[in-house]
Every structure is written in structure tokens, then in C-alpha cells.
Amino acid sequence: MAIKSSVLLLLPVALLLLAGSSPAVAQLEIGYYSKTCPNVEAIVREEMDKIISAAPSLAGPLLRLHFHDCFVRGCDASVLLNSTEGNLAERDAKPNKSLRGFSSVDRVKAKLEAACPNTVSCADVLTLMARDAVVLSKGPTWPVALGRRDGKVSSAVEAADQLPPAFGDIPLLTKIFASKNLDLKDLVVLSGAHTLGTAHCPSYADRLYNFSSAYNADPSLDSEYADKLRTRCKSADDKAMLSEMDPGSYKTFDTSYYRHVAKHRGLFQSDAALLTDATTMEYVQRIATGKFDDEFFKDFSESMIKMGNVGVLTGAEGEIRKKCYIVN
Q1: Which residues contact 16 (CB under 8 A, 6 or more apart)?
Q2: Is 183 marked as binding a ligand?
Q3: 194 is in an annotated binding site
Q4: Is 200 one of the catalytic residues?
Q5: Active-site residue among 66, 68, 260, 264?
Q6: How do residues 33-56 score in pLDDT, each as one tens digit?
Q7: Which class for 114: exposed (0-12), middle (13-18), buried (19 or more C-beta within 10 A)?
Q8: How many Å apart are CA 325 and CA 26, to the nearest integer?
Q9: Is 40 annotated as a binding residue?
Q10: What distances in angstroms separate CA 26 from CA 151, 186, 284, 309, 314, one per listed residue?
Q11: How many angstroms separate the CA atoms of 29 and 18, rounded?
């Protein structure tokens, strides 16, 4: 019931966002492919059903792919492009080395190419897959305006410079989000995506070992949780071991992430940072009570719509790639 009510509440929000001042966003439309590929969402959902049923742990990585795409050059599928001779692409930037799910995107794109050749962009495919990854993990749904075009440029340097880092504090993260027209509420709400997925040791090991001259471990991290993490992450160089970002619930989209953060058990420094600002701390503590799940689902849906509109290419800009990993 909560999911259905979220959709009804979000439709006006989506339309307001689409009618915003950005000329690119104004060209995104609900039902953009109604004449050229009317079954686009059904095709994506059918394939995503199969993907997530076979590998539920892929929901987090597919959502993360969309995040990492939108924060560099906007939501233009530039994160999907392979590196070429003379150009190191976004996917090979250090913050993106652990990205997964590329073959799933290729699989969905191939289905769409068979049904509607040269029609649906990889940027739209990734946006729809991210939404469906959340829905299929028992999270909310929201309307996705379509019509994005694919970018032709992908830079590892830009990715390294522009992606929000796991060690980010509130001032840094706020600045990065603001550069994408996302605000402090979007920051704390979209951090809730950490309810899905896992992370490799190097992304949080500096909180466990040689944190500072005064502390071996990050004092903002619950000591018992730190001890538990050390049993999995033996050193900062351990690149094989994975830890759940939302322990015990990492395949389900829910609000338990905020309960962990409220108890100083967020995996990343950026999670812990949410308790250092009055606004974000109040939101964490409110959602952590477990009494406002519908509110979080609604907020997350609205923030995902905003993020999905960041820096989009439309009209004659960019192209519609035939294969998502290479420009035409």
C-alpha cells in the first residue's frame, strides 16, 4: 500500500521537476517512448526480474552504477564506456574499480535493441534499471521521465575529482551535491541507498587502522562494531573481503541503514558524518525509529527523480548507443 501511495504522491512532483527551469530536463517525458518503443519499461522489468531473482546482491551495484553515472557529466551513461587507447574512462577510475553490473546492463540493452533498434538510450536503460533494482528489493517505485541521450566522453580524471568520497565530511559532501543541484536533504536521503550492497575493505579500512596520531580506530565508530569489522578486514590492503553496508539486510531496501548509523555503526566516514550536522542527524534519528518508513520511501523517490535529471543530454545532443560500452 505504501508503494502505491508513493506513486500517487510523486506524480505531481515529477511533473513539477520536469517543468523546471532547465531546458534539458523540460524535454524529459513520462512515456517518452510510447510510440517508438511502447514496451520499454516492461522489457526492462522482465529482464530485471530475472537478474535480481538469480542474483539479489546485484541490486545494490546496479543502483550504485546509476549514482556514479549521474555525478560525473550527468546521467549520460558515460560510466558504462570502456577505456580506449589514449583515454582512461570513468569505469577505470579508482573510485569506480569496484563497480559491478555492467554485463547486466548489456543484457537489458540487447533485449531492447532486439525489440526497438537504435531507439532507447543506455542512459535511460540505466535509470530504469536503478529504479527496478529498488522495487525488486522491496523498496518504493516512482515514475521515470525518459528521453536521455548518451554521452560520447568518459574521463577517469573527472570521476576521481567529482564523485562523493567515502571519507567525505558534511561540508565536502554538501559542496559536491550542490554542484549537481542536490541539497542537504537529498544527501541524507540518498545516503539511504547504502541499505543495499557491500563494500571492499579499502573503502573503510582507514577507520580501523592508524586512523590518526591520537586514535588507532575512528572514535566515531562503535568499538564493538570496529572489532567485528577487523575480523573481516585484516588490513587496508585486503581487496577481496566484502562487508555488508547494512548488516543483516543488505539485499532488502528498508530503513535499517539509518538504525545502524544512529548507533554509530555506519560503515563509511560519510555515513558517520550524517551525525555531525543538526539537519542530517535529525533525519537519521527520525527514520531510525522505524515509524516513518513511508516518509523515507517518498523522500527517496523524490530525490532519485531529482538525481536522474542531473546534467541530462536531450534532443540532438549526444547519441543513442547501439552498445553501451562503446560509442557508435
Answers
A1: none
A2: no
A3: yes
A4: no
A5: 68
A6: 999 999 999 999 999 999 999 999
A7: exposed
A8: 27
A9: no
A10: 18, 21, 33, 10, 9
A11: 7
Instruction: Please list, residue by residue across 148-158, b when 16 or more beta carbons sit within 10 angstroms of its beta carbon and e when fewer do.
Output: bbbbeebbbeb
% pLDDT > 90, the chain: 84
pLDDT in tens, 83-111: 999 999 999 999 999 999 999 999 999 99
Q: What's the DSSP call for residue 307?
A: H
Classify residue 4 as exposed, middle or buried by CB count within 10 Å of its CB (0-12, 13-18, 19+): exposed
DSSP secondary structure, 203-264, as one string: GTGGGTSS--SS-SS-TTS-HHHHHHHHHH--STT--S-EEESSTT-TTS-SSHHHHHHHTT
Q: Please check the confidence at residue 18 and state whether its pLDDT lies above 50.
A: no
Cβ atoms of 192 and 258 within 8 Å: the answer is yes
Q: Say how far apart CA 149 and CA 123 lie, in whole Å.
A: 6
Residue 164, annotated ligand binder? Answer: yes
